[in-house]
Amino acid sequence: xxxxxxxxxxxxxxxxxxxxxxxxxxxxxxxxxxxxxxxxxxxxxxxxxxxxxxxxxxxxxxxxxxxxxxxxxxxxxxxxxxxxxxxxxxxxxxxxxxxxxxxxxxxxxxxxxxxxxxxxxxxxxxxxxxxxxxxxxxxxxxxxxxxxxxxxxxxxxxxxxxxxxxxxxxxxxxxxxxxxxxxxxxxxxxxxxxxxxxxxxxxxxxxxxxxxxxxxxxxxxxxxxxxxxxxxxxxxxxxxxxxxxxxxxxxxxxxxxxxxxxxxxxxxxxxxxxxxxxxxxxxxxxxxxxxxxxxxxxxxxxxxxxxxxxxxxxxxxxxxxxxxxxxxxxxxxxxxxxxxxxxxxxxxxxxxxxxxxxxxxxxxx
Length: 365
Prior knowledge:
The protein has two domains: about 5-190, no CATH class; about 260-340, no CATH class. It is rod-shaped. Strand 10 and strand 11 form a beta hairpin. It is of the alpha+beta class. It is built from eight helices and 13 strands. The strands form two sheets. Strands 1, 2, 3, 4, 5, 6, 7, 8, 9, 10 and 11 form an eleven-stranded mixed sheet that branches. A two-stranded antiparallel ribbon has the order 12-13. The chain has helices at about 60-65, 65-70, 90-95, 120-130, 210-275, 285-295, 310-340, 350-360; strands spanning about 5, 10, 20, 25-35, 35-40, 55-60, 75-80, 95-105, 110-115, 130-145, 155-170, 195, 200-205. Pfam families: DUF2213. It comes from Castellaniella ginsengisoli. This is DUF2213 domain-containing protein.
């Protein structure tokens, strides 16, 4: 395995600042943590795309190893990373303080006590917000792909961690995550509040008000989810009711369509029998019935090639002609019957005979 220089970053709040008589700033804070972290391949000296990311696992047995924690004692404090390990050649230009004492395990984190001695560095913390810490260290990297207990996959395992310095950085450069924070004035260390997330995972939060805020946020989110589910159930009930109504309407519509279809077929057959008496209509399609009737009445036309609109128009015209012819026939028959009714019967005396009898047989007065 190759030992290389690496830098980690962690965020802290500016809350536990104390000053000694010399004006030096004493600040305890979390510097590093266990778990997985993302690195660029070039940071680890790996071949391939230098900007590709790899996941490195920092197991507790390595982070909290006695030799690793002991390496915090006397490590330098810098403003920004010097770009290399702090050494005798760059010490005067880079170091602004030191870490006093060995690192201490604090949950998943390593806590260390920083002493910042340089006035400009102290001003950077107070006025410019240089409140994040980034550990500079050497470590060995073992290529051993695996999965952590929480299911996170990793590519390398970090071993033999040795701290060289802790850099003060502006906000927003935290590799270890924003749970790393500067402590308050409690000499026994901060009381951690455990908050159970909606996923069931429990996390520890240092500030009680922040813990309360997180818990309240989770409760409100859970209520929103519950309300949203209730609204979805209500809408689903409405949809189910509407679906049932639609099914009933479709059934009723189908009955109406069947009735209308039967009427159309019956009417077409009745009219077709007048246009083409004696033809047997074997279709239940009104248009086909019309075609069959027209084919009988007007065989010279290819009715199979005509459009439905054309067939219907011709059928209506043919039916009107039949109706007109029948009407004329009825009228002639009625006139003939009326004429026959006006003819004299044998029992009646002709008019001229009656007139002659008045002169030949005068009545007596």
